[in-house]
Write a structure and sequence with these properties.
CATH topology: NMB0513-like
Helix content: 40-55%
CATH architecture: Orthogonal Bundle
Largest sheet: 4 strands, antiparallel
Shape: globular
Number of strands: 4
Oligomer: single chain
Distance between the termini: 23 Å
CATH class: Mainly Alpha
Radius of gyration: 14 Å
Length: 120
């Protein structure tokens, strides 16, 4: 899967230089790019983009720590891409709900940062 020059991927990389990217941000970027997409189409495209970012080593998926000892630290989700996408798929409604704090985040890897800086 080649998503080079994809505007959503580039925006995720750009935003990732300064902060972690919440799953709802990825969904919003996809909705803006394809305003006529169905909810299932947005979900499929989100999973496709996240697969690309993970498989290419550009980002890691995870969550923020709730620990008093390391508050705000990023905790990578364990497992391979398939496991992480399975988790996102099964928890889709909770992960994209704005009723609570964002539970799924992406953070750029060193490789992702290098590519993002080259784009900028």
């Amino acid at each position: 899967m080649n998503l080079q020059n994809n505007p959503v991927v580039e925006e995720i990389l750009y935003q990732g230089l300064t902060d972690w990217i919440g799953l709802t941000t990825v969904v919003s970027l996809i909705e803006e790019e394809a305003a006529d997409a169905t909810p299932e189409g947005v979900k499929a495209e989100t999973l496709r983009l996240i697969r690309y970012l993970l498989d290419e080593g550009l980002a890691r998926a995870g969550e923020l720590s709730n620990s008093a000892f390391d508050s705000g630290d990023f905790l990578d989700w364990p497992g391979d891409t398939a496991m992480i996408l399975g988790r996102i798929t099964s928890d889709w409604e909770d992960l994209t709900s704005l009723d609570h704090f964002e539970p799924c985040w992406l953070r750029l890897t060193d490789r992702g940062r290098e590519i993002a800086q080259a784009l900028g």
